[in-house]
């Protein structure tokens, strides 16, 4: 076997500098003297890309010629983060880069910073996809990521004078983007609309419009694996660049309209997280990338074949459906097999159901996509027929199994009647081989509640794969100081590709010297963040305070409102003298969160946090003891800077609502302690790091259910307000205008909701949350104890590597492995 390496051969810093010079001159046309940091970034990225080329081609060849099944990760979102330092790390060119760039007279950090972060995802789901393709490449497993190259990623968040969120468009392709390679030769036609007619006893789709899906390929270099996979993101183009007839009549705008409509499909990422809107354009996007990807995979694995034997398709590639967004792929593959390749229904079904698997990412019923049958029928009439037929077959199968009528009605994929609709999660569960949740608790609740009927009928389909994060980006790149200390402590850097090796740090938790160094690293990270925040946001932060962080999408179930009410309560107690300000642990509270633009309650919460920040930070009574900062536009870059600097991490969602969380894993792996509920992967984190090294509070899933049964969300919350003076005071201050310059209307919706509805039980958990703070503070007062606990968090969190998640997928779901 030939050894595959990327870079092809080791190079020196001088050689790397020469390659950058060459790019600058012959591709970009700038002299070394003229070159800006941004120019050098583009040149360095292009040079790195060239180093990946041989391994990329070899990986593709080995994938096509060998018999190792590939993975197609279908995801509407890939939240990649900046690429340059990741690529350098994975191919082992970091040092050469730094020296080369210095020799060219630039600061390496400025060159890295010149890259614009692509925001092709909302939050956890998109970041998971990015971690997974990194791990697949690092493990040497042949894989494609398939998605959409949105022209506009997730909006940029700013705050106005009143502290309200303002969204501005994220035109990330404004400057040169050196990573994506557009490949017109691999375009696919994607049809829409029209009708289905009967021709020679066959159903034939006569679409009324079509777009051209053009792939933009991104290389995905594995860490030290020598393998480079592909992230193929589709962009939409028009076929009829100009309708000349119309153009001749000098109706120019009409002539270009089809082009505008076609290019709309990949124009914008929907900014909803957890609560999709049933918009036609979104369904168009879903079908667009899934149809193109399926046809692409057939072309990749059966090159040049007019009549391929597609019964072998499930041995060539398995598609993983990342949530319900790509589920239209199931009827699409059926259609392709039957209509385009002439297979009979049963053969097509056998192929399709072996090809797909489904990852469910939620427990919130409103997050499970349901499409109106009218919409699907108008856009994809042939698919609606196929879905109905799948439903008929499904209903028959259930009846034959003896499933009772009522249960069958509940389980229908296609519901008849006036508001006929298609339930995508049910289609995915029936149409694929496996269904997985993303943490133990979540998978259990899927089986017990959300998909119970399905779990009863098809128990063997259900499995769990607990999420993970890539240690390359979220430990090594984000936290070089701690990484060096770990490598020193373990005597090897092998932990970066085998994160369970962090276990070797356990004995070092009792080594005072090591624990002290660990605490020093944290302090250095905090100082570095203070500099970053000063530069980027103009904040003046005191590094000698506890850094207490809550960063994630803004959603009621995540309960940023619980955190801010606690801050308000502490503030009130300081003001009233109930708390001696000199007796408390000085704290800096950080929030980072975007809200969906149409989510009123979430936006009001953002406004409240900003105004609490304004009031508290400017009050001499709390100066230096309690401050609140809300750096805007939470993204991967902010995560990479803030997480390693955090002492205390907030994972305080209502039990039973967070499917997994991955932020929690990033924090534990960076030596932050967690205050959290028994929800999502918190449960497993706590089990591994030890209950004594985790600040647990709040209701369990069973207690939450009991409160719902007692009608909590219909007026039950008010009792907590009336019975807990701390809570009453905090809510009263929100209501009385303390954080809105006297205006009592600003937070009316929030206050009303807390007192009458409070579906996510912020009020019911408030007391427990306040009570745990004493334990947190007394622990923090003993710095060596805190640092020791932090070391044990790191040492025992190796399980939460996305490499381990991928190994679980390989074993439980995909049944494949690395290329030979
Ligand atoms: C990890 C990550 C998330 C997910 O955070 P959760 O706390 O798991 O919701 C969201 N956004 C960014 C930028 C991230 O890096």
TrEMBL record:
Key word Transport present: no
Reaction it catalyzes? [(1->4)-alpha-D-glucosyl](n) + phosphate = [(1->4)-alpha-D-glucosyl](n-1) + alpha-D-glucose 1-phosphate
Name the enzyme group at the top EC level.
transferase
**What does UniProt give as GO cellular component?**
cytoplasm
Q: Is Cell cycle a UniProt keyword of this protein?
A: no
List all membrane-crossing ranges.
none
The protein depicted here goes by the name Alpha-1,4 glucan phosphorylase
Organism, by scientific name, is Bifidobacterium tsurumiense
Tell me the classification of the organism that encodes this protein.
Answer: Bacteria, Bacillati, Actinomycetota, Actinomycetes, Bifidobacteriales
């Amino acid at each position: 076997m030939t050894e595959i390496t990327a870079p092809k051969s080791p190079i020196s810093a001088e050689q790397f500098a020469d390659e950058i010079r060459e790019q600058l001159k012959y591709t970009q046309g700038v002299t070394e003297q003229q070159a800006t940091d941004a120019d050098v970034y583009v040149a360095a990225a292009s040079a790195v890309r060239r180093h990946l080329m041989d391994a990329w081609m070899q990986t593709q060849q080995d994938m096509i010629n060998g018999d190792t099944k590939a993975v197609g990760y279908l995801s509407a979102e890939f939240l990649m983060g900046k690429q340059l330092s990741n690529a350098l790390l994975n191919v082992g060119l970091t040092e050469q880069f730094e020296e080369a760039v210095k020799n060219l007279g630039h600061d390496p950090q400025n060159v890295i910073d010149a890259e614009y972060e692509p925001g092709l995802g909302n939050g956890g789901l998109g970041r998971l996809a990015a971690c997974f393709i990194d791990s697949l490449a690092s493990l040497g497993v042949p894989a494609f990521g398939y998605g959409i190259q949105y022209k506009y990623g997730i909006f940029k968040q700013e705050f106005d004078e009143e502290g309200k969120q303002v969204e501005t468009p994220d035109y990330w392709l404004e400057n040169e983007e050196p990573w994506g390679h557009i490949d017109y030769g691999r375009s696919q036609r994607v049809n829409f609309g029209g009708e289905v007619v009967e021709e020679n006893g066959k159903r034939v789709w006569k679409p009324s419009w079509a777009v051209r899906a053009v792939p933009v390929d991104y290389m995905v270099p594995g860490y030290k694996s020598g393998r480079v996979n592909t992230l193929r993101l589709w962009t939409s183009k028009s076929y009829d660049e100009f309708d000349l007839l119309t153009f001749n009549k000098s109706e120019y705008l009409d002539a270009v309209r089809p082009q505008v409509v076609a290019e709309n499909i990949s124009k914008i990422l929907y900014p909803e997280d957890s609560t999709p809107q049933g918009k036609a354009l979104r369904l168009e996007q879903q079908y667009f990338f899934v149809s193109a990807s399926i046809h692409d995979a057939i072309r990749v694995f059966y090159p040049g074949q007019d009549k391929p034997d597609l019964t072998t398709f499930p041995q060539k590639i398995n598609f993983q459906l990342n949530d319900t967004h790509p589920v239209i792929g199931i009827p699409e593959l059926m259609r392709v097999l039957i209509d385009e390749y002439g297979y009979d229904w049963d053969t097509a079904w056998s192929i399709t159901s072996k090809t797909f698997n489904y990852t469910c990412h939620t427990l919130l019923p409103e997050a499970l996509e349901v499409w109106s049958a009218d919409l699907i029928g108008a856009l994809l009439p042939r698919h609606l027929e196929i879905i109905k037929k799948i439903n008929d077959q499904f209903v028959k199968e259930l009846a034959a199994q003896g499933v009772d009528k009522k249960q069958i009605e509940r389980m229908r994929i296609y519901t008849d009647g006036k508001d006929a609709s298609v339930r995508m999660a049910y289609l995915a569960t029936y149409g694929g081989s496996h269904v997985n949740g993303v943490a133990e608790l979540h998978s259990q609740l899927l089986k017990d509640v959300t998909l119970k009927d399905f779990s009863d009928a098809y128990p063997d389909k259900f499995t769990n794969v607990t999420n993970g994060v890539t240690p390359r980006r979220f430990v090594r790149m984000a936290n070089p100081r701690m990484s060096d200390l770990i490598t020193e402590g373990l005597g090897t850097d092998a932990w970066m590709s085998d994160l369970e090796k962090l276990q070797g740090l356990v004995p070092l938790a009792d080594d005072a010297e090591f624990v002290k160094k660990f605490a020093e690293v944290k302090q250095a990270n905090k100082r570095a963040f203070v500099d970053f925040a000063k530069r980027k946001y103009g904040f003046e932060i005191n590094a000698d305070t506890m850094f207490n962080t809550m960063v994630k999408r803004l959603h009621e179930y995540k309960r940023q409102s619980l955190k801010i009410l606690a801050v308000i309560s502490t503030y009130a107690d300081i003001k009233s003298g109930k708390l001696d300000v000199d007796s408390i642990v000085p704290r800096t509270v950080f929030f980072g969160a975007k809200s969906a633009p149409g989510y009123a309650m979430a936006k009001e919460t953002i406004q409240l946090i900003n105004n609490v920040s304004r009031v508290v930070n400017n009050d001499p009574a709390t100066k230096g003891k309690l401050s609140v900062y809300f750096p805007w536009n939470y993204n991967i870059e902010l995560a990479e800077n803030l997480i390693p600097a955090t002492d205390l991490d907030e994972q305080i969602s209502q039990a039973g609502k967070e499917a997994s969380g991955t932020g929690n894993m990033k924090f534990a792996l960076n030596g932050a302690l967690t205050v959290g509920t028994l929800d999502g992967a918190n449960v497993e984190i706590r089990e591994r790091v030890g209950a004594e090294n985790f600040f647990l509070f709040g209701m369990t899933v069973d207690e939450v259910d009991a409160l719902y049964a007692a009608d909590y969300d219909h007026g039950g919350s008010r009792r907590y307000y009336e019975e807990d003076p701390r809570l009453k005071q905090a809510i009263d201050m929100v209501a009385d205008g303390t954080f809105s310059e006297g205006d009592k209307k600003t937070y009316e919706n929030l206050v009303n909701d807390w007192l009458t509805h409070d579906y996510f039980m912020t009020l019911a958990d408030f007391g427990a949350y306040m009570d745990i703070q004493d334990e947190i503070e007394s622990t923090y007062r003993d710095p060596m104890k805190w640092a020791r606990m932090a070391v044990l968090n790191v040492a025992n969190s190796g399980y939460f590597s996305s490499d381990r998640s991928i190994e679980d997928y390989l074993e439980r779901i995909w049944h494949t492995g690395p290329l030979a």
